[in-house]
Write a structure and sequence with these properties.
The protein is globular. With 386 residues, it is an alpha/beta fold. Helix 1 runs antiparallel to helix 7 and helix 2 packs parallel to helix 7. The protein is built from 10 helices and 12 strands. The longest helix has 37 residues. It starts with a strand and ends in a 10-residue tail after the last helix. The strands form 3 sheets. A 7-stranded mixed sheet has the order 2-8-7-6-5-3-4, with helices on both faces.
């Protein structure tokens, strides 16, 4: 048995996407900045892909700047006020941001910037009133993750973005986990900057995008050859971008049906895991990513999450201990701590994330396997259940 349930970490390229990647790599591999026919063919591929990615979020194609992935897009957005004017200002983020936001924010803090980390409730949700209270005269940017990768909670992005715009402040959201799984319409949302990643929606790793609202100018993060209209230097990886575009187009076409299917699988897994007394659901039970289930082990302690991941792997299941970007950590999850969990429980979180290949039989088997894995844990890893 081999069942992958870690689609929030990465997704495999689907056959149509891989075919597009291969075709472009073999036939349209030119440097898009070159003026000859090889360059022209590559440039046409880029613009078609830009349209495909833009359509996924209902943006204008010129609002899409390709990057190396979600991390670069997040860093670019967070650092854009600093790049425009290094004079220290005020930045607002949430207490449950991905490290691609949290770490550049900390970098700015070391350089004199004031950082407000908005608190969340026990489900990981921000109260919009807290954002309003946090705004200062020198607030330069607000950044809130849309769908939290570790606990699955969805933030009230439309309301938060509206508050930012009422105060004349730029608003960014990391939509890496949301794109391709829930509808996004930047024509209707007051969002200035939005991060995307190809490999979260069955495209290749190493490519992403930053949506930049038309009319907004931000400084480039990388200096060099002035590609992407002067916004992002570096020779573009044309085959990867083409595959990203194909993946975005397929995701947009299939989203309504796939969203419902994933929600049904998610809800069934939640019901099965809720029957296990040692497990407690984390994240918002309603405002939640459609493919995401996360729990903590009651009475768990140091290493519990990682031990469960290894035990499940031996049983043929791929899951993760929180965010894949931090799954090797030995420190309590900052996200779970921010939600009010104890340091012991914050070391005992695991995540299931479902995808195109997941079937109901996989969900049933995963629940059985997890019960077996729980019983296999060394007793030293478990305290008395809370």
């Amino acid at each position: 048995m081999s069942i992958y349930l870690d689609y929030s970490a990465t997704t495999p390229m689907r056959p149509e996407v891989l075919e597009r990647f291969t075709t472009v790599a073999q036939e349209q591999w030119g440097n898009a900045a070159s003026l000859h026919q090889w360059g022209n063919r590559a440039a046409l591929v880029l613009e078609r892909s830009r349209q495909q990615v833009a359509s996924l979020i209902r943006a204008e194609p010129e609002a899409i700047a390709f990057t190396s992935g979600g991390t670069e897009s997040d860093n670019w957005a967070i650092l854009s006020p600093y790049l425009a004017d290094p004079q220290p200002g005020h930045l607002i983020i949430s207490a449950v941001e991905h490290s691609a936001i949290a770490r550049p924010a900390a970098w700015l803090e070391e350089r004199g910037w004031q950082i407000t980390r908005l608190p969340v409730d026990c489900h990981g949700r921000i109260h919009p009133a807290d954002l309003t209270s946090a705004i200062r005269p020198n607030t330069r940017l607000i950044s809130v993750i849309w769908g939290q990768s570790e606990v699955g909670t969805l933030q009230p992005i439309a309301e938060l973005a509206a508050i930012a715009h009422e105060h004349g402040i730029l608003f960014h959201t990391d939509a890496v986990q949301v794109a391709g799984r829930l509808p996004i319409d930047v024509q209707r949302l007051p969002i200035d900057l939005l991060s995307l990643s190809s490999h979260k929606l069955y495209g290749p790793q190493g490519v992403g995008a930053l949506y930049i609202r038309p009319g907004l100018t931000i400084p480039p993060l990388l200096q060099g050859g002035n590609q992407e209209g002067g916004l992002r230097s570096g020779t573009p990886p044309v085959p990867a971008i083409a595959a990203f575009g194909e993946a975005a187009q397929l995701a947009a076409a299939e989203l309504p049906q796939e969203r419902l299917r994933l929600q049904q699988l998610r809800d069934r897994l939640i019901a099965l895991l809720s029957a296990e007394s040692r497990l407690k659901l984390t994240g918002d039970p309603v405002q939640r990513l459609p493919h995401h289930v996360s729990v903590v082990v009651r009475g768990g302690g140091s290493g519990t999450g990682q031990q469960l991941v290894r035990a499940m792997n031996r049983l043929g299941f791929g899951i993760s201990a929180g965010s894949a970007c931090n799954s090797g950590r030995s420190q309590p999850s900052p996200v779970l701590l921010a939600m009010g969990y104890s340091p012991q429980e914050a070391l005992a979180g695991i995540r299931f994330s479902l995808g195109r290949s997941t079937q109901m039989a996989d969900i049933e088997a995963a629940a059985i396997a997890l019960r077996s894995a729980l019983h296999s844990l060394p007793q030293a890893s478990l305290l008395s259940p809370a």
